Amino acid sequence: MPVQFSLLEPKDIPDIVPLIQEFNENKFSSEVLTQRFEAMFQQHYECVGVFDGDRLIGLTGLWYQTRHYSGQSCEVDHVYIDQNYRSGGIGKQLFEFIEAHVKKKGCEAIELNTYVQNTASHKFYYNLGFKILGFHFLKEI
């Protein structure tokens, strides 16, 4: 399926929020997500949109940092593709786009987290060459 990938900007937050609400099963209000994305765009964050024509059908976040164990790296966050477009090769195309994009920015590694129960994503990421290094922990305060 021919899709296009492009970087989204803060002005696109109203288009980003509904997809993130689907991703998070409406855990957060539009207002909370809008505030968070406004802050994120100020903090070494980029958002890649996946388009079918003019329609935003997917997105993912990219966080940039330097880590002692991997050097300049990009952490891929909140990978989401509309259910009607899944299993058609778009995810693989998205990661090919991401890899080329972050290499141009000088990154030496790509990292990501995935939910333990999302076993389909584990196979997908293994097939793309990712390896499990550890567990991600979170404590809300």
The Rg value, from CA coordinates, equals 15 Å
Q: How many distinct folded domains? A: 1
The count of β-strands is 5
What is the CATH level 1 assignment?
Answer: Alpha Beta
Task: Provide the spatial order of strands within the biggest beta sheet.
Answer: 1-2-3-4-5
Reading the helices and strands in chain order gives EHHEEEHEH
Major sheet:
5 strands, mixed
Tell me the CATH architecture: 3-Layer(aba) Sandwich
Shape: globular
Structure annotation, total helices:
4
Low-pLDDT windows of residues: none
Strand content: 25-35%
Fourth CATH level, the homologous superfamily: Gcn5-related N-acetyltransferase (GNAT)
> For the residues shown, what is the average pLDDT?
95
